[in-house]
Amino acid sequence: MKVLIPPIKCQGIKSKLVKWIDETRQWDNKGVWIEPFMGSGVVGFNLKPRKALFCDTNPHLISFYQGINSGAITPIVVREFLESEGAQLAKHGADYYYQVRKRFNTEKSPLDFLFLNRACFNGLIRFNRKGGFNVPFGHKPERFSKAYVTKIANQVEWVAKRASLSDWTFLHQDFRTTLSCATGNDLIYCDPPYAGRHTDYFNTWKAAHEKLLYQNLKTTKAQFILSTWHSNEHRENPAILKLWSEFNVITREHFYHVGAKESNRKPMLEALVTNFEPAAPTSRKNTGELDSYAADTLQLRFIRQNQQSTDSQKNFPPEERE
Ligand SMILES: C[S@@+](CC[C@H](N)C(=O)[O-])C[C@H]1O[C@@H](n2cnc3c(N)ncnc32)[C@H](O)[C@@H]1O
């Protein structure tokens, strides 16, 4: 499966997990694919559900995709916009970036949001307490080369085509509202922010939010797959033991880089939590990512051994410090 990247990128984009999620799901595509934390949308867009509900609390992501769905944002519109804004950026550099940022914070145009997402520092999406986008310039005035603009226009074309061939809805709403729509035929894919790590205007996630998510998913009639982290070299995710271990937990090891040095390659165990028996993995090619199904078994045993002691803790963890 070739995984395509959508036009708007975000922190925690799960492009590397799409194939694993695809292999894990056991779903007949008869109901609705529900994604309460759509972010970039990379998972659902690549798995092509017939009918889907993509939601997020970030209104700018949602209005961008509503624009694609309505036909207001097309590959031609995006190309023309990025060509002209890119030329201004090349001419005036950082000053122009900050001019667009100011304009976006007043007018909230989804095209400006796309421009900022591709011109800002590291493609971050971050808002201040008043809801203003506050990521600094990425220091690349020549960013919008012809090839780069074509690449983004092609990404828009890909999503627009898939959306037009399917029945996809994009809504700006909290995960609780989204989950309340789920029925027994649906598959929910949840990828909440990591607790304690994110705090901004549209994206705050604490242990109390994770607990609410757990309560909602525990009672849903739909199938669900939750993405979360299991452990890294320093610590384990406490929510796995406290909340998620009553479901199926499968893990896979990934490596990420801190800085440019090869010696700074750090392991991270990603987890998928499901309320159904996950499909057995298919071929295990050496992709540079170390699969860890042997480790899974050990970890699950560890989790289940500890479960008795944590059942009494189901009164939930204390709030994490911000
Ligand atoms: C880790 S990102 C999702 C990444 C996505 N799966 C991807 O691959 O691009 C989490 C998303 O949850 C959204 N979010 C945060 N709090 C939320 C809430 N209470 N309800 C719905 N969405 C929320 C954030 O705006 C962010 O886009």
Key words describing this protein structure:
globular, 11 helices, 322 residues, alpha/beta, binds S-adenosylmethionine, 9 strands, 16% strand
Describe the structure.
The chain has 2 domains: 15-57 and 173-311, Vaccinia Virus protein VP39 (Rossmann fold), CATH 3.40.50.150; 68-157, Adenine-specific Methyltransferase, Domain 2 (Adenine-specific Methyltransferase, domain 2, Orthogonal Bundle), CATH 1.10.1020. It contains 11 helices and 9 strands. α4 crosses α5 (94-107), α4 packs antiparallel against α7 (146-165) and α5 (94-107) runs antiparallel to α6. The two termini are 39 Å apart. The longest helix has 20 residues, at 146-165. The protein has 322 residues and is α/β, with parallel strands linked by helices. It has helices spanning 18-24, 42-47, 59-70, 75-92, 94-107, 110-119, 146-165, 175-179, 207-219, 238-242, 293-311; strands at 33-35, 51-56, 167-172, 187-190, 199-200, 203-204, 223-232, 248-257, 265-274. Strands 3-2-1-4-7-9-8 form a 7-stranded mixed β-sheet, with helices on both faces. The protein has a two-stranded antiparallel sheet with strand order 5-6. Helices cover 40% and strands 16% of the residues. S-adenosylmethionine is lined by residues 10, 12-14, 36-37, 39-40, 42-43, 56-58, 174-175, 191-193, 202-203, 205.
* Strand order of the biggest β-sheet: 3-2-1-4-7-9-8
Question: Can you tell me the overall shape?
Answer: globular
Which CATH C-level class of the largest domain is it? Alpha Beta
The total tally of domains equals: 2
Q: Hetero groups bound? A: S-adenosylmethionine
Question: Might you state the CATH topology name of the largest domain?
Answer: Rossmann fold
The arrangement of helices and strands along the chain is HEHEHHHHHEHEEEHEHEEH
